[in-house]
Here is the input.
Amino acid sequence: MQINFKGTNYELPVEISDLARRKVEGLTKYLGKGKENARAYVDLGKETDAHQNGKIWRADINFDVEGDRFYAKAIEDSIEKAIDKSVSELASELQTARKRQQSLVKKGGGVIKDLMRRGLSV
Here is the structure.
């Protein structure tokens, strides 16, 4: 998996990028075969330079895998919370997509089996 980092209105420390790398690499368990070709684009930073407290930290993650794009964004009061929230949102999207794909495969197999039972040709 290839992970690209970008800091917006924020100088990205090594500790934060390592934390984000570990969290994003944890998403590979939802990918199956496509984990080698997966790409993640992580944008971390402040919403604006004008604000000093409150929900000012932002984490955007674009995740490209096998032609599909998944996106998660979180705004929190600390960069760590924003990373955690966006990664969990992305994990939820990946789980939903995986379940959807599995159910489509099962439905397709059922249709083919039904056609074979009836003796119809495709």
About this structure: The CA atoms of residues 7 and 28 lie 23 Å apart. The first helix runs from residue 14 to 25. The chain has a mean pLDDT of 85.
